[in-house]
Amino acid sequence: MVNAETPTPLGIQPGLRASHMRAVPQVQTVLGPAPASTLGPTLCHEHVAIRSPGVAEAWPAMGPSKSAILQRCVRLLSRAQRAGIGCILDHTTFDLGRDPLLLRVAAERSGVSIVAATGIWTTRPRFFGHKTDEQLAELFIRDAVTGFGGTNIRPGLIKVGVTSEPLDAFDRLLLRAAAITHDVTGLPVTLHTDASNRSGFEAVELLSAHGVDPARVGVGHSGDTTDVAYLLELLSHGVFLGLDRFGSATGPDDNARMQVVMELCEAGFAERLLLAHDTNCWNDRDTDQWRTQNRPNWHFEYIPNTILPSLELRGVGTETIRQLMETNPQTWLAGTSPVPRAKPETPDPNS
Ligand SMILES: [Zn+2]
To answer: Distance, CA 185 to ligand 1 centroid (Å)?
Structure first.
């Protein structure tokens, strides 16, 4: 008799991914693996639909229906596609209400590739309370190997949210679980950090100490600070930085965010920046009225239609724009990134 409480062992061994490496760099999208080079311009930290877990189940009559949410997602993703966006990296983990089937249908109908995330945002589920790093990693690895929740839809990212500085025991547990998951699956790690307390440093160091190549780590929400010295120090570890809240009307304004992009490019790190809005098609927290009043620019078209032209007007070249929007997401996701070198200091002719 099958014991329903005992999950089928996965039989996963660290290093398994080495035998599955392909000649053409691949990215796992919600429609299956795709050559990285086919993704097109990519928004590196967004959400399709964010829902508070358990609410729809507790009060199903409150709506909106799943099909209404899907329709809205398809409409907004189609607009992104018409603005030139080929792919979005959906950072909606299970604790933000990830719905893999919705992601799949939204990708099919809109024509925008979607890369989904395993891992966890900043909530601390009771279920995780007494688990070890290996037990948590098994959950994430299960997503990557067999698919999310009984589907065959798999993640292309491992997300971990850390906000305390110094990291607390739970943050460290999650980071170790992410490192194990990365080792087995080869997926990149994307961090939710708090740039104001510089929580990225310790997280990157812990991941590195557990064998994660910094070139596969994206330090999210780094654009929430204008402390370029902090960002350059992070970059010196070899990581990617998420400058990922354009149009959000939180933290630095968009001019200040663009200035950071330009300074980091000027310092030789254009190969390490990942742009996005951290917006969504649907968030059960927000009303349309609230969004219109408070965050009018917080949508997928803002970067392609407003930020990129502004950067070009300020002297950022077409090739650099392509680097930011296409090459960087692809190399981070597929693990084909060259090591960037900081621009050498111009020698002082008088010395
Ligand atoms: Zn987010």
So the answer is: 22
Q: How far apart are CA 72 and CA 54, in angstroms?
A: 21
Half-sphere exposure of 191 (CA within 13 A, CB side): 38
**In the predicted model, is pLDDT for residue 324 greater than 80?**
yes
Cα(90)–Cα(43) distance, integer angstroms? 9
Domains of the chain, each with CATH number or no CATH: 42-334 (3.20.20.140)
Of 115, 79, 127, 130, residue with least CA distance to 299:
79
The torsion angle over the Cα atoms of residues 17, 21, 26 and 29, rounded to 10 degrees, is -30
* Residue 150: count of CB within 10 angstroms of its CB: 9
Contact status, residue 202 vs residue 233, Cβ threshold 8 Å: no
State how far the Cα of 166 lies from the Cα of 152, in Å rounded to an integer.
Answer: 38
Rg (CA), the chain: 20
The single residue listed with the structure tokens 């507790």 is: 58
What are the residues whose beta carbons fall under 8 Å from the beta carbon of 210, sequence distance 6 or more? 175, 176, 179, 180
Strand-pairing partners, residue 49, are 282
Pairing of strands 26-29, 280-283: unpaired
Render pLDDT for 175-216 as a digit per residue (tens, 0 to 9).
999 999 999 999 999 999 998 888 899 999 999 999 999 999
- Report how far ligand 1's centroid is from the alpha carbon of 286 (Å): 14
What is the Å distance from ligand 1's center to 9 Cα?
32
pLDDT over 70 percentage in the chain: 89
Q: How far apart are CA 170 and CA 173, in angstroms?
A: 5
Instruction: Give the distance (Å) from ligand 1 centre to CA of residue 326.
Output: 20
- Name the pTM for this structure: 0.91
CA of 96 to the centre of ligand 1 (A): 9
Per-residue pLDDT tens over the stretch 84-93: 999 999 999 9
Task: Give me ligand 1 centre to Cα 121, in Å.
Answer: 8
Ligand 1 center from residue 8 Cα (angstroms): 32
Q: Which tokens belong to 348? A: 């002082």
**Residue with structure tokens 């992070």?**
234
Q: Provide the 8-state DSSP code for 270.
A: G
